[in-house]
């Protein structure tokens, strides 16, 4: 790694995440490497963090969206198996909730 500023963790976490995703793109099976002490990623509600999840997540209105996805995986918070994302819009905010299918 080149220049990371004051904290190597600010460079190490995104760099290792990208390395892990590139490994998955090449057909590898990277292990979960984030821990409570290193690069922890917390997710809202009952969502689960995945290092390599589909960017085309299923929604309640399109429950098979992921099956037609051609995009490479991405890290982030995803609904657990058996649930879907539902977009709630009100006049003051937009939020996502997971609903059991």
From TrEMBL:
Chief location bin = secreted
UniProt protein name? TIL domain-containing protein
Q: Which residues form the TIL domain?
A: 43-86
* Segments passing through the bilayer: none
Domain VWF/SSPO/Zonadhesin-like cysteine-rich: start-end pairs: 1-39
Q: What keywords is this UniProt entry annotated with?
A: Disulfide bond, Repeat, Secreted
**Which compartment or compartments is the protein found in?**
Secreted
């Amino acid at each position: 790694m080149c220049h990371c500023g004051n904290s190597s963790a600010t460079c190490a976490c995104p760099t290792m995440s990208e390395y892990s995703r590139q490994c998955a793109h090449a057909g590898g099976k990277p292990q979960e490497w984030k821990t409570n002490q290193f690069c922890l990623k917390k997710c809202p509600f009952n969502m689960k963090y995945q290092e390599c999840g589909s960017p085309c997540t299923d929604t309640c209105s399109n429950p098979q969206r992921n099956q037609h996805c051609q995009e490479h995986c991405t890290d982030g918070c995803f609904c657990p198996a058996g649930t879907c994302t539902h977009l709630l819009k009100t006049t003051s905010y937009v939020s996502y909730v997971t609903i059991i299918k």
